[in-house]
Amino acid sequence: MKKKVLIIENDQDIRELVTYILEAEGFNTMSTREPENLEQILLFGPNLILIDEFINNKPGHRLCHKIKQVSGLRDIPVIVLSTANDIELIATECQANGYIRKPFDGREIVDKVIGLVNDQSLSY
């Protein structure tokens, strides 16, 4: 069974690029600008979530923090994507399992996603 990655990204071009990269590596993806609610995430049942730090003018780390508080979601690895200089601090504070600084290299996305999907204890 293919591993599932949920991509929550404000920028359509980046959503499409990350979707292309991960699907080429054999992942099943779902991408959105912003999930309707946490139940939508539960229904997709991702093995990993990529979250943009800026979602429709709202901080993505708030969504990350909410995910980490919900039973059934808290054990799903989360990677925060951002151009912010303090992305490491942001990811730590929202209990993300890692971060990727934009602009990113496609190989970096693949390596982090594969690492976290295969080893839930891996971070940063």
From TrEMBL:
- Please state every residue range assigned to the domain named Response regulatory: 4-117
Residues with 4-aspartylphosphate modification? D52
Q: Does the UniProt entry include the keyword Phosphoprotein?
A: yes
A Pfam family reported for this protein in Swiss-Prot or TrEMBL: Response_reg
Question: Which InterPro entries does the record associate with it?
Answer: Bact_response_regulator (IPR050595), CheY-like_superfamily (IPR011006), Sig_transdc_resp-reg_receiver (IPR001789)
Q: Which UniProt keywords apply?
A: Phosphoprotein
Q: Which sequence ranges are marked TM in the entry?
A: none
PANTHER family (alphabetical) = RESPONSE REGULATORY DOMAIN-CONTAINING PROTEIN, STRESS RESPONSE REGULATOR PROTEIN 1
What's this protein's name?
Answer: Response regulator
* The species this protein was found in: Mucilaginibacter aquariorum
